[in-house]
């Protein structure tokens, strides 16, 4: 018989952890080896216990589940993180996936769906709740359509790429000018040229464009 799946429960509500323990300990192939009540505690307990799967809530006091997931995956890459949360909006969904979560299940899911998700991520697969998986496909198709029709970064001069990168990093025109040893007025002229060439009209869209083209990454 295969070893049971070793689980760590990370949720700031004791009643939720108790309910999960009752539910999952009834599964013959699962065992609860620890609990955590916040993100920092989840990181510490994961380092101590090396669970196969961490069931991670998102909204917890102190460090949230997104940052905890990012750190757990950096320190314990073999541990799978499964988001189990009440949040079903796109922001949290995509942030958890970018942080390294292998699955995302809403707390309204049926018990057998949660058990299936745990088994899937424990063997290295990805599990996305059906309604959320559809959003991932839609996001991919939208990104693909945008990328197919937008100008490549190579259309920008090297100086414009430098300016765009610094804009995307949140620097003001004055700060960019100081870093590149040019005037703020010259920076503004470069920004206008960039927007015209890539057909974008505000800073948020420029940041997204810089991300898609690899000029900056999410860790910066």
TrEMBL record:
It comes from the Bacteria. The keyword Protein biosynthesis does not apply. CDD domains: LuxR_C_like, REC_NarL-like. Coiled coil: none annotated. One of its GO terms (molecular function) is DNA binding. InterPro entries: CheY-like_superfamily (IPR011006), NreC/VraR/RcsB-like_REC (IPR058245), Sig_transdc_resp-reg_C-effctor (IPR016032), Sig_transdc_resp-reg_receiver (IPR001789), Tscrpt_reg_LuxR_C (IPR000792), WalR-like (IPR039420). Residues 149-214 form the HTH luxR-type domain. The modification 4-aspartylphosphate is found at residue 57. One of its GO terms (biological process) is phosphorelay signal transduction system. Keywords: DNA-binding, Phosphoprotein, Transcription, Transcription regulation. Residues 6-122 form the Response regulatory domain. SUPFAM superfamilies: C-terminal effector domain of the bipartite response regulators (SSF46894), CheY-like (SSF52172). PANTHER family: TRANSCRIPTIONAL REGULATORY PROTEIN NARL-RELATED, TWO-COMPONENT RESPONSE REGULATOR. This is Oxygen regulatory protein NreC. The gene is nreC.
């Amino acid at each position: 018989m295969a070893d049971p799946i070793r689980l760590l429960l990370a949720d700031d509500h004791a009643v939720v952890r108790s309910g999960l323990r009752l539910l999952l300990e009834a599964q013959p192939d699962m065992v609860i080896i620890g609990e955590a009540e916040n993100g920092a505690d989840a990181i510490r307990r994961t380092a101590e216990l090396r669970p196969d799967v961490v069931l991670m809530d998102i909204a917890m006091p102190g460090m949230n589940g997104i940052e905890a997931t990012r750190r757990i995956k950096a320190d314990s890459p073999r541990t799978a993180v499964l988001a189990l949360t009440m949040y079903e909006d796109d922001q949290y969904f995509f942030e958890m996936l970018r942080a390294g979560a292998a699955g995302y299940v809403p707390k309204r899911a049926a018990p057998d769906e949660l058990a299936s998700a745990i088994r899937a991520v424990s063997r290295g697969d990805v599990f996305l709740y059906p309604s959320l998986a559809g959003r991932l496909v839609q996001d991919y198709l939208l990104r693909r359509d945008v990328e197919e029709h937008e100008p490549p970064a190579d259309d920008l001069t090297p100086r414009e790429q430098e300016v765009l990168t610094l804009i995307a990093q949140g620097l003001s025109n004055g700060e960019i000018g100081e870093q590149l040893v040019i005037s703020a007025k010259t920076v503004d002229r470069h920004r206008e040229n960039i927007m015209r060439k890539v057909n974008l009209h505000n800073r948020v869209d420029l940041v997204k464009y810089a991300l898609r083209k690899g000029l900056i990454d999410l860790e910066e």
